């Protein structure tokens, strides 16, 4: 069997390749060269990128086998997430890999603007000792306004507090309690603009944040203010900033990001009070290694069919370790449900009972849907496109939990109502120290059968000779029975057989006829 192919589209640390391990065929390409990138995507399973590779709709359309786009960094401006989601492609990034590096660069730019470090350095190297020309200001007792109190903004606040600064913060999504823990005071944007001696921006670039600090905002600041943007280009209007500095309405600025990149010419470059760097926020050895290793691990999980909690287009959130063992079970229950029902339900209840409900098991709704559609549609079903497939086919899903599980420590039931009103249910649990996956219920009948790759599930009128006939027919076909169980209610019975190999459709039809089955289902979980 050939190995999954991982395409490295930009230079990444050696630790990234090491973290991928030996289970993949690794190829490299210059992702910035579209003529090279597009054909290279044709037969790859995952692509690892940084900021120079555009995974837009065209690139995604050229990647017929692609399952994962991994951005070794935080921003996803160069990935068309909607197109990836529609194609069932998981998008992952490394949201915490460069936060320390970005925070430290922001503080470096702030200090550089406060003390005129860049122009003094340039003058001295040019042979001019201009000590009196580059007088600066201290940070002690000054007010810094942090626009965006997320992970990076919080790190900046912690560090600037040590400088003895008064910290204001603007963030509509931050709580006063969080701000208080950081020694910051939450204020509205106008108040922050009016009071701050320094302003540092730490927001994502969105339609709402583009141009947030523009002409109108810059009319409200102190003329002595110094503004730092090490977040995303375009949030700070560069043309408006250049005019404000020229007119003496802003004292200086430190910029690591620009609305258009790469940028090598700008009116801002004419001002000695402006310090600029070419998007170096994540450019530390530590950040690059953390980002590469993090997304390599995510790729391993995703290509292994596992959930990746950090995937940006999969709604899972954090998954408790206690919940993870049940993921494979619930997905298999979804496939068993489809085999037994023969169709997709209009309403699916994921009924979880037992001690496990002390944890957040909402991810099992997504897992159940993935299993439900795996054997129904021709396209590959992923954790990304399973909700869309359910919506397209009018399948609503609901989570029901109850700490009381009856005979088992935990039990999960998929109960679906079909379009004609018929209710179908399958139940499963994990038993013993090895957490053996077992089918413990079908259609209200109690069972306890290990889940295997090949199973037969049939309902029939209980009478002598049925099981013997089934055994004889399978034996004549060379198919071995690994285990079986019958559950009876009055004269109706459910039989579940574990068999060692797949049962062909013609043989299944013969078996169904011989047992006069009300329903006869072949479960094939072998991938």
UniProtKB/TrEMBL annotation:
Keywords: Amino-acid biosynthesis, NAD, Oxidoreductase, Serine biosynthesis. The keyword Transmembrane does not apply. It catalyses: (2R)-3-phosphoglycerate + NAD(+) = 3-phosphooxypyruvate + NADH + H(+); (R)-2-hydroxyglutarate + NAD(+) = 2-oxoglutarate + NADH + H(+). It comes from the Bacteria. Residues 455-527 form the ACT domain. Its EC number is 1.1.1.95. The keyword Acetylation does not apply. It is an enzyme of class 1 (oxidoreductase). Pathway: Amino-acid biosynthesis; L-serine biosynthesis; L-serine from 3-phospho-D-glycerate: step 1/3. Pfam families: 2-Hacid_dh, 2-Hacid_dh_C, ACT, PGDH_inter. Catalyzes the reversible oxidation of 3-phospho-D-glycerate to 3-phosphonooxypyruvate, the first step of the phosphorylated L-serine biosynthesis pathway. Also catalyzes the reversible oxidation of 2-hydroxyglutarate to 2-oxoglutarate. Belongs to the D-isomer specific 2-hydroxyacid dehydrogenase family. This is D-3-phosphoglycerate dehydrogenase. It comes from Terrabacter carboxydivorans. The lineage of its organism: Bacteria, Bacillati, Actinomycetota, Actinomycetes, Micrococcales. The gene is serA_2.
